């Protein structure tokens, strides 16, 4: 959590820097509770719901969003007191970190509605995957261009990190392997601060993160690439990383 604190925007750093110092020797979860990040999810379906719930239970303030936020009451109740729901615009304004968990076909709408706001954030964590059979031409274009590059063109200035793309939503609450070890998670991005925050958040919810390369290799984190299957350990992911072509 301490490394995450150092990576959020300056106004938030100043607000909780002294708390971080005071609580440096406390346990990780207690520190999270003392100095939470504000995390927004754009998309609150299976994956957005699972990730947001895990972040809320780790002590962060979470705002789930949907085009129909009134339908998120059960999710908010299950995620506990750190969670709330809002519109996409409200969530984008709320988060220091924004997690994108929508079908790729929704990205132009997201960019139009909140792209400029997202460009002010320390991290936009892109968990979404282009799937042509679901996302049509946008899915095809994002796959050809690379999803990270596609988003950068759509939302200039946004600090994108990709991660959790091959992790199944139902393993988020219990990220363990059959041998009892932690599940690894591959992360790709160009922005050092964004990468640090993303790794810290992954660790806090029980995953073992591995930075596998720049944003350009983020296209390998999910199908049609066959490198990752969501059940690998961090060591297995480290062995795969050198094979990913930029
Ligand atoms: N499911 C998984 O295990 C998994 C794992 C890794 C990555 N992913 C990726 O994560 C993304 C979401 O998958 P999912 O399984 O969570 O899908 P899902 O359960 O169908 O949820 C999709 C979410 O996207 C929102 N959404 C759709 N269009 C939107 C728009 N124009 N503006 C704002 N929000 C919009 C929906 O909200 P409303 O319709 O209520 O507005 C809903 O909350 C996909 O790109 C998927 O490939 C999924």
Described by the principal axes of the CA atoms, the overall outline is globular
Q: Please, what is the average pLDDT? A: 89
Sheet with the most strands? Answer: 8 strands, mixed
The SS-based structural class is alpha/beta
Q: Estimate percent helicity.
A: 40-55%
Tally of individual domains: 1
CATH topology-level name: Rossmann fold
User: What distance lies between the first and last C-alpha atoms, to the nearest angstrom?
Assistant: 30 Å
What do we call the CATH homologous superfamily? NAD(P)-binding Rossmann-like Domain
* Helical run tally: 11
From the coordinates shown, what is the CATH architecture?
Answer: 3-Layer(aba) Sandwich
| Rg over alpha carbons | 17 Å
Bound compounds, each kind once, are:
NADP nicotinamide-adenine-dinucleotide phosphate
Strand content: 15-25%
Question: Uncertain segments of ≥5 residues (pLDDT<50)?
Answer: 9-34
In quaternary terms, these chains amount to: single chain
Order of helices and strands: HHHEHEHEHEHEHHEEHEH
Which CATH class is shown?
Alpha Beta
Spatial sequence of strands, sheet with the most strands:
3-2-1-4-5-6-7-8
Q: Please tally the β strands and state the result.
A: 8
Offer a few descriptive terms:
246 residues, alpha/beta, Rossmann fold, 11 helices, 42% helix, binds NADP nicotinamide-adenine-dinucleotide phosphate
Can you put this structure into words, describing what you see?
The protein has 246 residues and is of the alpha/beta class. It has one domain (2-169, 190-199): 3-Layer(aba) Sandwich (Rossmann fold). The chain is built from eleven helices and eight strands. It has helices at 2-5, 10-22, 28-34, 46-57, 73-79, 88-94, 107-118, 132-145, 147-154, 192-204, 234-240; strands at residues 38-42, 61-65, 83-86, 97-100, 123-126, 160-163, 184-189, 208-213. The protein has an eight-stranded mixed sheet, sandwiched between helices. β1 (38-42), α4 (46-57) and β2 (61-65) form a beta-alpha-beta unit. α4 (46-57) runs parallel beside α5 (73-79), α6 (88-94) packs parallel to α7 (107-118) and α8 packs across α9. The longest helix has 14 residues, at 132-145. Bound molecules: NADP nicotinamide-adenine-dinucleotide phosphate (NAP). Residues 42-48, 66-68, 88, 101-104, 106, 109-110, 127-129, 131, 164-165, 167-169 line the site of NADP nicotinamide-adenine-dinucleotide phosphate.
């Amino acid at each position: 959590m301490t490394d995450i604190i150092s990576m959020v925007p300056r106004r938030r750093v100043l607000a909780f820097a002294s708390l971080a110092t005071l609580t440096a020797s406390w346990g990780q979860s207690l520190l999270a509770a003392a100095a939470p990040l504000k995390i927004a999810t754009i998309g609150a379906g299976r994956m957005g719901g699972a990730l947001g719930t895990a972040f809320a239970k780790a002590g962060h303030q979470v705002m789930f969003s949907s085009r129909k936020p009134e339908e998120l009451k059960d999710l908010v109740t299950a995620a506990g007191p750190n969670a709330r729901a809002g519109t996409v615009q409200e969530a984008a304004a709320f988060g220091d970190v924004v997690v994108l968990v929508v079908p790729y076909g929704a990205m132009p709408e997201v960019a139009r509605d909140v792209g400029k706001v997202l460009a002010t954030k320390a991290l936009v964590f892109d968990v979404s995957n282009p799937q042509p059979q679901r996302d049509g031409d946008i899915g095809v274009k994002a796959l050809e261009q690379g999803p990270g590059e596609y988003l950068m063109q759509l939302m200039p200035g946004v600090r994108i990190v990709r991660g959790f793309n091959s992790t199944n939503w139902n393993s988020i609450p219990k990220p363990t392997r059959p041998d009892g070890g932690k599940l690894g998670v591959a992360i790709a991005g160009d922005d050092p601060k964004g990468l640090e925050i993303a790794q810290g958040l992954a660790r806090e919810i029980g995953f073992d993160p591995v930075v596998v390369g720049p944003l350009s290799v983020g296209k390998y984190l999910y199908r049609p690439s066959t490198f990752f299957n969501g059940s690998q350990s961090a060591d297995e992911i480290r062995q795969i990383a050198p094979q990913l072509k930029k």
